[in-house]
Amino acid sequence: MNNDILLLERVSKHFPVNSLRRGGKFVHAMDEISFSLKRGEVLAIVGESGSGKTTTANVIARIYKQTSGSVTFEGREISKNMSREDELRYHKKVQMIFQDPFGALNPTRTVEGILERPFLIHKIASKRKDVKDRIDEILTQVGLEPPEQFTRKFPHELSGGQRQRVNIARAFAVEPELILADEPTSMLDVSNRMSIMNMMLYLKESHGVSFIYITHDLAGARYMSDRIIVMYAGMIMEIGPAEKIINDSFHPYTKLLKTAAPSPEIGLKRKKLITGGDIPSLIDPPDGCRFHPRCPFASDICSLEMPVMKKIDEDHYVRCFLR
Amino acid sequence: MISMDKYDVTPILQCKKLVAGYKMKSGFVHAVDDVSFDLEKGGFLGIAGESGCGKSTLAFAIMRLLKDNAKIESGEIIFKGRDLARLKDNEMKKIRWVDISMVFQSAMNALNPVLSIGEQLTDAVHAHSEVTQSEAHDKAIEVLKLVDISQDRFNSYPHQLSGGMKQRVMIAMALILNPTLVIMDEPTTALDVVVQRTIIEKIQELRNALGFSVIFITHDLSLLVEISDTLAIMYAGKIVEYGSAEALFNHPLHPYTIGLMNSFPSLTGKISRMGGIEGKPPNLLDPPEGCRFSPRCPQAMSICRKSYPSLENKGENHSVACFLHEGVDKP
Amino acid sequence: MLKDTFSLFIENRKALLGLIILIFFSGVAIFAPIIAPYDPKTNKVDVMKIVNEEIGRTTTIEREQIDELTERRVYTQSITTTYEKVTTKLPLNAKPSNQHLLGTTKAGQDLFSQMVYGTRITLTVGLVTGLFTTFLALSLALAAGYFGGIVDDVISLFTNVFLVIPSLPLMIVIAAYITVKGVIPIVLILGLTSWPWPTRILRSQVVSLKNRDFVKVARNLGERPLYIVFKEILPNMISLVMASFFSSTMAAIMGEATLEFLGLGNVSVVSWGTILYWAQNSGALLSGAWWWFLPPGICIALIGTSFALMNFAIDEISNPKLRKR
């Protein structure tokens, strides 16, 4: 437990469908999410749209407050209402990288204007020269060299890859303990993705940062992470070491994800997908396992009761009655 | 239905030295620069490339959908013995959708939100053929069945369908007049991975049943390698490597192809730190001298910056445009 | 960033035309005393000159010898000055001529001078009201849009209620009842009746910006709310605020002309609206004195057009397709 930097216990987040009416319906974006993150670990959260992976990141980053459940960071439980100092301290330690590199940058500010904020807000540097040196340093670390070439530029003058590097620079500038990366490469050109991923891994090593990496790409998750969480329709289906999840998964949904992923090696030997179907609606979901309507192995109990997370192996848990 | 005659080896589409692009204030952008390829009947050609490589312009050029300041400069597009590039507009109209159809990028946004999908399908029929209302209606039902959408969805509106269903409607629309060739421009890019797989399987199923040829354009090289017969890798308006999917996957020759292959982490196999490619594609208004990839190429030689290598055949269905693999006799 | 926007603005032909018209009228307003040949309210011209100056008798009252060289004398002297004053009454209701470029009113006032001086009032009222309305609307929009909750509910409620009330009748009613007549009441009336529309528009923009990723990033970094409002959201609204300002100014100019035409302003202050008021009152239309009612009408239309043109230009500039990528 001492080594855990982050702990989520039964965290749920429900959004009201109609904000004005009381007693209306709710979208169950997250339900009963529980997991821990060790210091220095990279944990990938894999899921398709509607799985709740982005909401999970937003709750950890305090962009949303959870509906129920507890989030514990560095041993202290994070309460819904924090004082300004506590809030600031938390933001210094937990940073987020967003999916859209352009949307995350204020179009009216230069790179310099964007990057000086983290240093100034968290009082890491205050004198002009110190701030400038720090900006140059972090730009170099993310591969935007020489820094002078980039400091005066506006976001629309940068390429997609460069914009994302600025975002990453900003996240690392405060020297955080935990970084949440929400699909950081999915809006980039293919040839840029690898270098961004490698750079994040390198920065993680050199700064000693823990990482939560959110993606829909199972192969990317395998490349980046030590452990993988598989989410579906707002709940965790399986969690375990990366290799196990990829090569020896248990949950039918995890297997479905693997079968569906493009892989040239498997290619022609590929069997047809076991199931199609669509992701269910998250509004007031029915009882039972969320995946059961699409599950080829579903039995009666699957539509009546929700399976709980059970341990099946070292560090490997699954939410399924097949157990 | 078209003939499934396996012994007929005439390609159904032959692109010969096609040049197309956009007229800008500062000059002409050659988005498609001297592109040539063949597509055999019933074949599946994958075109891989990143943003700005010209793949969408190529698709529009073949469909003769380039408008305003975009046009075909030179070259030939031979389809069933006729040069599409030279056809008049009204003649092309007879071919469009009847013989060649297209599934557009972000197809889900191409559906009219205020018309039901049934209406949009019948509209497509009426626009390109002379049939009665009921015949068009029947065709629409038939093609919806082909893509596994039930009849009672005929009157649904696009917003009532999921992303995957909308995509299948677009495919249905492309197939409604039984074309010989379907061009698909990033048809699965915005979809979840499981939905994407079902769409791909459906496309292959339909291809087996109806026998149409496919040009499939995407940046997802790992997907293309799986599903294509032949692959063309495009970079900055040119084809840099071309051949069977197997050949390109097992022995990629061009450094860009190698770099691209190295940009997709593998799901099986060993994990190792992979490379990716530094830099970004060139500005086509002012392309670099010589090989367009030379500024980013880890193996660039001095000749690469001075002249452009031509696409040369290196053996069984595998060509590459690269000085590293030029023949023994230097030009 | 501002420099970029400004140069884009200047390059746009519509904006340039609009700006030229505005600068032209501003110049007329600033240099009015030099440009206008007559005092706008007078109906005569006096030319005075001295015809004769006669020095009369000198009568000594006191004489004193202070010392050998100095003498003190007190004396009276009469001077008779003969003046000639030529009073030319300005012609009444005269057609335009060399002396009177735009003719005269029925009371004999030079219309060109009136138009020139009137520019001052029109522009001042228009711009001041425009500024006031925009400032009010922006403040309310930022508060409602960013803070949401009850602040938003209250502001939006007021905005929606006032939106429904027709502004012109409201303006007329208020103007008819207040006892103080003049320019300042008009500015206030116009400002207080035209704030709802821009408030609503600006508020929507604030809300949409608030949900953009870079605002989430700012909150995630720990930025204070006021900083986010003024340094993250507001700079991205410049085009809309400018467009809002132009619209409000245009509406103010029209509103002011309307109120004064109806006689609800101070009719003794010379502005384009009051010129129209007096023209109407004196039956200029009936008597065919086109030089009386056409110039103010045309000038009001021209100024309105100039702001409309600049507004179109802002629309074009804010269209992201035009931005360099």
How would you describe this structure to a colleague?
The complex is a heterotrimer of chains A (323), B (331) and C (325). In chain A, the strands form two sheets. Chain A has an eight-stranded mixed β-sheet, sandwiched between helices. Chain A has a four-stranded antiparallel β-sheet with strand order 2-1-4-5, covered by helices on one side. In chain A, helix 3 (111-121) packs across helix 4 (128-141), helix 4 packs across helix 6 (160-173) and helix 6 packs parallel to helix 7 (190-207). In chain A, 50% of the residues are buried. Chain A has eleven helices and twelve strands. Chain A has helices at residues 53-60, 84-93, 111-121, 128-141, 148-151, 160-173, 190-207, 218-224, 242-247, 252-260, 300-304, and strands spanning 4-16, 26-38, 42-46, 68-73, 76-78, 94-97, 178-182, 210-215, 227-232, 235-241, 309-313, 316-319. Chain B is an alpha/beta fold. Chain B has helices spanning 55-62, 89-95, 117-128, 133-146, 163-175, 193-210, 221-227, 245-250, 255-261, and strands at 11-24, 27-40, 44-48, 70-79, 82-83, 100-103, 181-185, 213-218, 230-235, 238-244, 312-313, 318-320. In chain B, the strands form two sheets. Chain B has an eight-stranded mixed β-sheet with strand order 6-7-8-3-9-10-12-11, sandwiched between helices. A four-stranded antiparallel β-sheet of chain B has the order 2-1-4-5. In chain B, a hairpin with a 2-residue loop joins strand 9 and strand 10 (238-244). In chain B, helix 4 (133-146) crosses helix 5 and helix 5 runs parallel beside helix 6 (193-210). Residues 321-325 of chain C have low confidence and may be disordered. The interface between A and B is large, with 42 and 40 residues.
In a few lines, what is going on in this structure?
The complex is a heterotrimer of chains A (323), B (331) and C (325). Chain A is built from 11 helices and 12 strands.
